[in-house]
Amino acid sequence: MDIDFKEYKLRCQLQGHEDDARGICVCGNSGIATSSRDRTVRFWKLDESQKGVYTLSKIFLGHTSFVGPLAWFPPTDEFPEGGIVSGGMDTLVFVWNIATGEKVQLLKGHKLQVTGLALDGSDLVSASVDCTLRRWRAGQQVEVWEAHKAAIQAVIRLPSGELVTGSSDMTLKLWTGKSCSRTFQGHTDTVRGLAVMPDVGILSASHDGSVRLWAISGEVLIEMVGHSSIVYSVDSHVSGLIVTGSEDCTAKVWKDGVCVQSIEHPGCVWDAKFLENADIVTACSDGVVRIWTIADDKVAGATVLNAFASQLSQYKISRKRVGGLKLDELPGVEALKVPGTSDGQTKVVREGDNGVAYAWNMKEVKWDKIGEVVDGPNDDLKRPVLNGTQYDYVFDVDIGDGEPIRKLPYNRSENPYDAADRWLLNENLPFSYRQQIVEFILQNTGQNHFTPDPLYRDPYTGSSAYVPAALPRQLSEVSKPSYKHIPKKGMLTFDTAQFDGILKKISEFNSTLISDSEQRHISLSESDFSRLNAMVKILKDTSHYHSSRFSDIDTGLLWKLLKTWPVPMLFPDVIINLIRKMTANPPLPANQLIALRALTNLFKSSFYTELLLKYRSEVLDAFSICCSSSSNKNIQLSYATLLLNYAVLLIENKDEEGQSQVLSAALEMAEEETIDSDSRFRILVAIGSLMLEGVVRRVALDLDVLSIAIAAKSSRDPKIAEVGADIELVAK
C-alpha cells in the first residue's frame, strides 16, 4: 500500500522527572502536563525563543505514590491559565491551579488506584481499579456506580456526551448516564487505553498487543497488530494518524491501519499523545518526555540527536540477547586466552555489538571461529537456555526429600520418552520415574493427544511404551513451581512490650493532669496506680498467661484511660473504635505504633476475626494515610505486618474486595524508597501471597507489579531478592 507519510524525528526532550514518566496531558496551547512514578505532576511551557523547546514551569506536589492519569480544563475566571486534574496510586484525585501551582481540591472516595479521568462539561468522571466510576461536581461526589466486575483501566468522553470505559475484563462499555448501552468484546486481554477517532469511532489499546478501531455500533473496523508486547496507550489526530505506546519500547505511528513508523525509545513507552500540529509527545520509563516532529525546522540539533542515538544504542546493547544470553553479560575476546577443556567445546564472546561463537580445537590447541550468534526475529518470545543450549522448554522439577530443584530441558521435536530417558540418566535418577516425567512433559507442552510411534520400542521392556509394574512414591509436586517465601501461612504478632516504660509514661502524664485544674478530675488515684502495677506484674509473668486474667475493675480502669484521657496521652493498647482518634491528623508516632501493634496482635486469636473483617476498610483507610510514607522504622514494620496479616486473613476468607484493598496499600508502600529491609520484605511477601493464593493476580499485573519484583530482585538483601524472584515467577 502506497501511503504518503513523512517520518518523525526528535524535536526536544523534557528532562526533570526522577522516575518513569507515566502520563501526558496536552493543555491546549498553554503547555504540556506530565505525571510520573516520582509522585509529581509537572507542567511544561513552550519557549518560542528556543526553537520551540518546552521548559519546566511548575511542579505539583501532593500525591503520596505514583501518578497516572491527567486531565486539563481550559481557563476560567477562577483558573486564568486553566487547571490540571491528576489521579494516583494513592486512590486520590487532585485539582491544581496552573497559574498558582496550588492544589485547590482533594477528591477522596476511590478504594484503589485511580486509572482514568474524563471531563464531562463542568463535571469530572474518575475510574479506578476498584471497578467504579465516580462523578464529581464542584469538589463533591454526586454519583458512583460499579461499571465492570474487574479493574477499570481507562475512561473517555465521546463528543455525543456518552462515556466509554476499558477494563481488565477485556471489554469496552458504552455508558449513557449510569446505564450500559453496549459492551464491546474482542480483545483477549486487558483493555488499557482508549481514544476518540473523530467522526469514526473508538480506539482501544490492549495487553494482547493489538489496537482496535470500533464503530459506535460495536463493529470492529480495523485491527492493528505490530507491537510485540503490551500496548499501554493510543491517541488519534484529525489528520487520520494514530499513535500507540508499548512495553516493547516503541511508539508506533499508524495510517489507514498500517504501521508507517516505529519510534524506538530507551525504555517502555507508557503514554503517547498528539499535539494540535501533529507533533507527538511520548512518556518513557527512563523518566524523559520527548517530542517528535515532522517539521524540518523544529528537529533537534546534531548534539541532541547524537546523544539520543548513543543512549538508544547503549540501551539496546543492554537488552540484546545472543543465544538467549544478554550481550553485555558475555565475556570479551580475552576469554579466548583460556584453553578449552574438551574437543568441540563452544564459547560465545562479545565482539563489538555482536556475539561470536568459537569451538575448541584440541588437536591444534586453539579456538576456531564458528560464526556470529543471532536470536530469532521475535525478541520477546525467547527460547530458554540451559548449559548454553536453547530449548523450547526448560522446566523446574522438584523431586522432594530436600533435593535441589532440577532443570528438565525439552524440545517439541523430541520423543518425550527419549527426553525423559536422557534426563533421568544425566540426573542419576531411577527409571521408575520415567512415565511420570513423560506425562508431565506431555501435560505442560500441550501434547494431550500424543500418540507414540508404533515402531518405537522401549529399550528396557521391548514394548511400545513403558508401563511400570508399580509406581513408587509420587514425585512431590513435579509441575509446581518452587517459591522461597510465599505463600505466607499464619499470623505475625508483637510479643514484647516495655511495660515499665509504659507505666513510667502514664505516671508522667498523670502528673500533668493533676497540675491542671480543668483536667484533674480525670487523673488516676494512688489506688488506681497500685492496680496498674498489679496488672503489669501479671503481664510480665508470661509463664502463667494460660491461668491469669484481669478483673472487671482492671478492665474498667483501662477503659477510663482510653475514653477520657486527651489524645496525646493515649499511650496504652487501643481497640477498633479508637482508631480514628489514634490516627487523627497530625498523628502522634507513639499513638500510631501502639495502635498498630495492638491491632496486629488481634490476628492471633480467631475470636477477633469477625471484628477485623467488619472494620477492614476503615482500618486500612485510617492507617494508609498516616503510615504508608512514615519515616519511623518501627511504624513501617508494624504497618507492613498489619498488611501481611490482613493478606493472610483475606485469602483464607476469599474476600476479593479486601484483597484488592490490601494489595493496593502494599504496592503503594513497596514504592517507598526509604522503608527498611524488614518492612520491605514483609510487604513483598504480602504481595506475593495475594497473587499466588488470592484472586488479585491480574489486578497486580495491571498495577505494574513486575517492576516492583524486578527492583526487589536486584536488592543486596538476599531475602528481598528471593521474594522478588517469587513474585516475578507468579507473574509469569
Automatic annotation (TrEMBL):
Residues 359-455 form the PFU domain. Residues 484-730 form the PUL domain. One of its GO terms (cellular component) is nucleus. The keyword rRNA processing does not apply. GO terms for molecular function: ubiquitin binding. The keyword Transmembrane helix does not apply. InterPro entries: ARM-like, ARM-type_fold, PFU, PFU_sf, PUL_dom, WD40/YVTN_repeat-like_dom_sf, WD40_PAC1, WD40_repeat_CS. Keywords: Cytoplasm, Repeat, WD repeat. It is found in: Cytoplasm. Its main location: cytoplasm. WD repeats lie at residues 14-54, 60-106, 145-175, 184-214, 224-255. One of its GO terms (biological process) is proteasome-mediated ubiquitin-dependent protein catabolic process. Gene3D superfamilies: Leucine-rich Repeat Variant (1.25.10.10), PFU (PLAA family ubiquitin binding), C-terminal domain (3.10.20.870), YVTN repeat-like/Quinoprotein amine dehydrogenase (2.130.10.10). This is Phospholipase A-2-activating protein. It comes from Genlisea aurea.
